[in-house]
Write a structure and sequence with these properties.
The protein is an all-alpha fold. The chain has a domain at about 215-250. The chain has 19 helices and two strands. The chain has helices at about 1-20, 30-45, 45-50, 55-75, 80-85, 90-95, 105-130, 140-145, 150-170, 180-195, 200-210, 220-250, 270-280, 290-305, 310-320, 325-355, 355-370, 380-395, 395-405; strands spanning about 255-260, 260-265. It has a two-stranded antiparallel ribbon. The chain is globular and about 60 Å long.
C-alpha cells in the first residue's frame, strides 16, 4: 500500500497545480486532490523528509497564522473572518504536503504545463469569440480576455512563474530540453504582451534588472542596469503627480472594459486604494485592526459615498472589491502587528535567499504581486503563494548542489 501511494503521490501534486487555473470549471477537483494528499501524507512521509523544512520562516508563518486566529477571536469576528484566515492554511499545508516529493522538478513542470494549457484554452475561447464578432482587433482581445478563464492578473502571475522556471531550467551545456524551455519563455512573453498584463510585465522587467547583479561580474551589464533604475526612478518621481492625476486618479470619466457582462474602470485600483487609505486613517484600532469582513463592509460603504457614476458604483458594490493590496489588507484588517509579522516572513526569506537568483526572483514576484492583489481572498492566490513557499521553505540540498552550477545562464 505504501509503495503504491509513494508512486502516485507526486503525480497527484502535479495534477493539482495543472488544473488550478481551471478552478472555475472544476472547482471541486482541487479539493478532492488535496484530500487525497492529506490522507496519503502519513503513509509516504519519512523522518528524513521532515528534516528538509527550513525552520525559521516556517515557525514565523505559523506564528503569524496563530496571531490572526487569536486576534480575530478576541475581536469577536472569528466566525466572519475564518473563511479568509483559513485560506492561509493552504500554502503552509502545501509546504508540508510536498515534503515527501524528492525534488522540485515535477512541480516546476506542472507550472509550465499549467501555463501552456491556460494559454491554449484562452486562444480557443478567443477563436470562438472571433466567429461571433466580425470586428476583431488586438484591442478586442485585450478587452475580452479577462472573461475567458481566470482574472488577467492571475494568468499573468502564472506566466511569470512559468517564465522564471523555464529560465531556471535552461542549462549552459547543450540539452535537448533547452529548446522546450526556450519555447515556453517565448510563448509566455508573447501571451503577456498580447493580453497586455501590465503588472506581470513590470514584474518581469524588475526581475530582469535584478538578474544583472547575479552570475559572473560584468561591470558594463551592471552599470547599464543601475542606469536604467536611476532613469526610471527619476522619471517616476518627476512625472508621478501628472500621471496620477491624468490617467489614474480619474473618478468622473473612467474608461471601461467588458468583464462578465459588467464594466470595470481601468483605474479601479486607485479608487479602492483611496477608500482603503481613508479607512486606515479613520480607524482607531491600529494594533489589532477591524477584521477582514468589516474592512470589506467599510470599503463598500466608501464606494457608495465616493463614486459618482451609478454604473461604476453598483459594480464596485456588487463585487465587494477588497483592498487589492495584501499588505494594506493585513494592516487594516488585523493591525500593525500582523503586517510586521507578514513582512518579517519576507525579510527572513530575503536574507536567506539573497545570494541565489531563482528563489529571490520568486520572492520578488509574490511581493510585488501582493502590492496590487489581496491573494489570500482567492483560493487560487493561496495555491500560488503555497507553490512559492514550497520552493523557499524546503531545503532540497541534494537537488540544489548539483543544479546550481549547471543552471542559470550567466
Amino acid at each position: 500500500m505504501r509503495i503504491l501511494l509513494t508512486a502516485i503521490y507526486p503525480y497527484v501534486f502535479i495534477l493539482l497545480y495543472i488544473i488550478i487555473p481551471f478552478d472555475e470549471y472544476v472547482r471541486v477537483l482541487p479539493n478532492i486532490l488535496m484530500t487525497i494528499l492529506v490522507i496519503a501524507f502519513p503513509f509516504v512521509v519519512t523522518k528524513r523528509d521532515l528534516k528538509k523544512i527550513v525552520l525559521k520562516p516556517t515557525l514565523l508563518f505559523l506564528l503569524f497564522f496563530i496571531f490572526l486566529l487569536t486576534n480575530s477571536y478576541f475581536q469577536g469576528s472569528i466566525d466572519k473572518d475564518f473563511n479568509i484566515i483559513s485560506k492561509m492554511l493552504i500554502p503552509i499545508g502545501l509546504v508540508f504536503l510536498y515534503l515527501p516529493v524528492n525534488n522540485f522538478k515535477k512541480l516546476n513542470k506542472a507550472i509550465i504545463f499549467s501555463s501552456f494549457f491556460a494559454i491554449v484554452f484562452t486562444f480557443i475561447q478567443f477563436l470562438l469569440l472571433v466567429n461571433q464578432d466580425s470586428d476583431v482587433s488586438i484591442q478586442f482581445f485585450q478587452d475580452t480576455v479577462d472573461a475567458l478563464l481566470i482574472d488577467r492578473i492571475y494568468v499573468g502571475l502564472l506566466c511569470v512563474l512559468s517564465t522564471l522556471i523555464s529560465y531556471q531550467s535552461l542549462t549552459k551545456k547543450y540539452h535537448p530540453d533547452n529548446k522546450y524551455y526556450l519555447a515556453s519563455i517565448i510563448v509566455n512573453l508573447f501571451y503577456l504582451l498580447l493580453i497586455m498584463s501590465k503588472i506581470a510585465l513590470i514584474i518581469l522587467f524588475i526581475i530582469v534588472i535584478v538578474r544583472q547583479f547575479y552570475g559572473k561580474p560584468n561591470r558594463i551589464r551592471r552599470s547599464i542596469a543601475i542606469g536604467v533604475i536611476v532613469l526610471i526612478s527619476g522619471f517616476g518621481i518627476l512625472k508621478f503627480q501628472t500621471i496620477y492625476q491624468s490617467t489614474v486618479n480619474l473618478k468622473n470619466d473612467i474608461s471601461q472594459i467588458e468583464y462578465n457582462e459588467s464594466t470595470i474602470p481601468l483605474g479601479y485600483r486607485s479608487q479602492i486604494w483611496d477608500c482603503a487609505l481613508k479607512i486606515s486613517k479613520e480607524s482607531s484600532n491600529l494594533l489589532s485592526g477591524i477584521g477582514f469582513r468589516e474592512t470589506t463592509n467599510r470599503l463598500v460603504l466608501c464606494y457608495s459615498n465616493d463614486i459618482k457614476e451609478e454604473d461604476v458604483k453598483q459594480n464596485f458594490i456588487s463585487k465587494r472589491f477588497n483592498t487589492h493590496n495584501q499588505f494594506m489588507d493585513f494592516y487594516i484588517s488585523a493591525g500593525l502587528i500582523s503586517l510586521l509579522l507578514f513582512l518579517g516572513i519576507f525579510g527572513t526569506l530575503f536574507f536567506q535567499n539573497r545570494k541565489q537568483f531563482f528563489p529571490l526572483a520568486l520572492l520578488i514576484t509574490i511581493f510585488l504581486f501582493g502590492m496590487v492583489e489581496s491573494f489570500f481572498h482567492r483560493q487560487i492566490g493561496a495555491y500560488y503563494f503555497g507553490f512559492i513557499l514550497a520552493i523557499l521553505f524546503i531545503n532540497n540540498t541534494h537537488q540544489n548542489s548539483s543544479k546550481t552550477k549547471e543552471n542559470l545562464i550567466s
